[in-house]
């Protein structure tokens, strides 16, 4: 019994952006938010089922906040949606019930805010999903769980991002910081992309050694989740999984936001430009360019 | 007899080797040993193979000569002339002297460079392979090959060069064990090491040696006097004025005094209060040591011990500055013998002058001693009291970075296509959906969210996904193929690797010629072009043919050819330009 016990914590970050999901619904896509949540819950329960010590956390990345759907803080009273008693294992039921309850709370809160908005006539709420914030929360949670981990037990953590909406460039810095933190903490980030490719998550997965998968058929989400993302990174090497895609690490220039292969980088503020300009427009640094030295005229005649 | 034409320089009989008697022949190019009653050489050493010879010390009973070869092996000859030991010695001396004359002539000139190169080839299999491929096959000249590897050579040289200053053993004087030479004298065996040690510890002796040896006394005479002199012996109060070391002793005294003032001036240490007693009283049983030594001789000796230790310690710290001092010392040495010859009086005059200078210096310093000491004390106290890292020194503020477009900086290098969902144009991104609508739709959906576990994954979509994820499916492209390294046999892989290595080396030589700025480079680039062509014919094309036999899916030599083509193109354009310039 001297073997080190390893438990695995899976943190699932679900993009619950209501604008994106409702748009999906409008265009009659087969995948809906509830369907997605159901699939995620099944994945979570399967993960719990794999080993007794396995742990699970589900975080919703909403437009104005990130919320832990499961588990809730221990001080809070356990609220859960009533589920039909069909003999489901209690722990799984708890997961499902709590996730459903928190989701409905989240949307209800949005509705309240919307009503406030009508009265105040203010700026509409942002429509970006706070994936970076949710990742940071997940990292903090992972850190706490690692500290709480009893001696002799080994906790391996991975994060799965299920994302539909597009990348939010304004979160770039936070996102990258979270990714490098995860890399440092040996936390693998996987990404399951429902709609548009995410360059940021591609990089995140590549940096942390996770899997990035854009699924072609969203209605089969559960199968992708179970097939590709259920096995932990150690087991993945033994399986025939979709190959890693080549990640495009090219940067976009700051001036036109075009991807550039080779660009000019300001030596002061590290801004990237596609063409040379003598004054950096970000930090106003003036560059003196020393032209190539003039070749002396007295070139030896051959 | 082998090679009767060889000139025999010396024949020594009664030489034993491995307990059998024989005769030692010294010939023009080798030395040989023949067993008694035979006429074939049992042992024969070329002089070129001999690294060194060693002889047994005279004190030993056996008179022996050892030959050490370059490969590290050795052989010992015992001179065993039955007539007398004197003759044995004579025999050996004659052999030794002959060898002394002959060996340097045959000394194989293995330059250190060659050894280095050999070592590199032995240690680095990749270089060795390249050497075999390129140099042995005549594609590249050895000079070119090594020129590009000069960094390896120099780095190897540097590794061996940093010589550490070897210190001096504190007991080096005691280690010179005098030997009784039968008569009423002592014999000192001085090795170069010991002499070096003496010079290092006692620079004055070195100076004296440089002054006196070639002109006034012989080398051995100098050392005899050195050991005879009171300088070396324990009691130094009786100083004979005629002795050359008298001056040394005087200067030593000065040095001792200087040492005392220099080392014992820490204001925090009061040496006079330190008593010679154990920490634990019971340890020695004496609480207060009141014994003071009255014996001046003993005191003097302890002083000398201390001074000796100081000198030994200082000898290790000889830095470049001392080298400079030495050279200047050498200058004065050149002068002084002249003076000696001219007039003894001047010498003594200059000596007193020198002493006078020293004492002058001393007086001057005593005037400032008080002032200096207080400064030093303050400095020491400050050192003890203040800690740099506890200082709350304010860091000078750095240059502030003025960012005018903070947002683009925070956004990072993400392409423009992804910015559509930013706050400013959120409405357009959502198409025709207003936020109200969106949230209404969602809350509707949540309200109708029942438990529909059985409907999460439909059968048809599951089947479709299964197809995608199975080997050969849409998502699994590239994985069903065998990996390249499994396809290609290790032998072929190794061969391709070697070809790559060799060709990259050649191409490097080729590309280093550009820009072609001199005549030699021009020649070289033309030569390299020819070499590359030769390489293509002799190595690349056979390899390509061989690989094509295996029908690999990939073109394994394609890249090699590409690299060659690039080089050819470069050469052709260069040549075209050159011709254009000429006409």
Quick synopsis:
The complex is a heterodimer of chains A (302) and B (583). By secondary structure, chain A is of the alpha/beta class.
Q: How are the SSEs ordered, and which strands pair?
A:
The complex is a heterodimer of chains A (302) and B (583).
Chain A: E1 5-15, H1 18-26, H2 33-50, E2 55-61, E3 66-70, H3 90-120, H4 131-148, E4 153-163, H5 172-184, E5 188-193, H6 199-208, E6 212-214, H7 221-229, H8 233-236, E7 251-252, E8 259-260, E9 264-265, E10 272-273
Helix pairs in contact in A: 2-3, 2-7, 4-5, 5-6
Chain B: E1 8-17, E2 20-27, E3 30-35, E4 41-46, E5 50-55, E6 63-69, E7 74-79, H1 85-106, H2 112-123, H3 125-136, H4 142-147, H5 150-160, H6 172-175, E8 179-180, E9 186-187, H7 192-201, H8 203-212, H9 219-228, H10 246-263, H11 281-284, H12 296-316, H13 320-342, H14 344-385, H15 406-411, H16 426-429, H17 435-447, H18 459-469, H19 484-487, H20 490-512, H21 519-550, H22 558-582
Antiparallel strand pairs in B: 1-2, 1-7, 2-3, 3-4, 5-6, 6-7, 8-9
Largest sheet strand order of chain A: 3-2-1-4-5-6
Overall pLDDT confidence of chain A? 83
Total helix count of chain B? 22
Please give the largest β-sheet of chain B. 7 strands, antiparallel
Helicity of chain B, as a percent range: 55-70%
Rg estimate of chain A, integer Å: 24 Å
Please give the domain count of chain B. Answer: 6
* Estimated structural class of chain A: alpha/beta
Instruction: Determine the N-to-C terminus distance of chain B.
Output: 73 Å
Specify the number of helices of chain A: 8
Biased composition (Basic and acidic residues) (chain B): 332-346
Domain BSD (chain B): 102-157, 182-234
Biased composition (Polar residues) (chain B): 348-358
Main location (chain B): nucleus
